[in-house]
Design brief:
The protein is 81% helix and 0% strand. The protein has 8 helices and no strands. Pfam families: ACR_tran.
Length: 189
Amino acid sequence: HVAVKELNAGVLEPAGLELIVAYDTSIYIRDALGLVQNNLAVGGLLAVLVLLLFVRAVAPTIIISVAIPVSAVGTFLAMFLLGRNINVVSLAGLSFAIGMLVDNSIVVLENIFRHAQEGEDEVTASSRGTTEVWGAVLASTLTTVAVFLPLLFMQAEIAQLLRDIALAICCAVILSFGVSVLVIPCLAA
């Protein structure tokens, strides 16, 4: 609105003209971004609470919870590197993926803790536990990506809207795989 005031007071006033803002979409965009950011935060918090409820231990819950922010921030970086903007649509895709971000980490960590309960030291349990399930975790990740990948190549008009959602979900799920087989074992060890 500062630019409108400057134009009205400067160039337009001597000509007897006035610029009036008829509709300001920035208000809607800011509100939508705030809503999606809140949904991301609430979704992440609810995922952590559900983990705590079922895992019933604070340390594993914290370890698994690392997957959410690491994958989310990594998704922002991946989107940027792929030349896409972070917008309401891509944030919505990421908020859809929040629950999926911990799935791989849960599988890996549960297998690591199974090995630890069998008497293996932390490093051996982390290595063996991850090695045993990484193929299954990769298969799960690839099946999720396979569902959304075709949306990236659609040419219809609706594809423009769905492309950012699909890309955000694919990036987030692929990054969650990386977190589950690289970060989670290190934290568990």
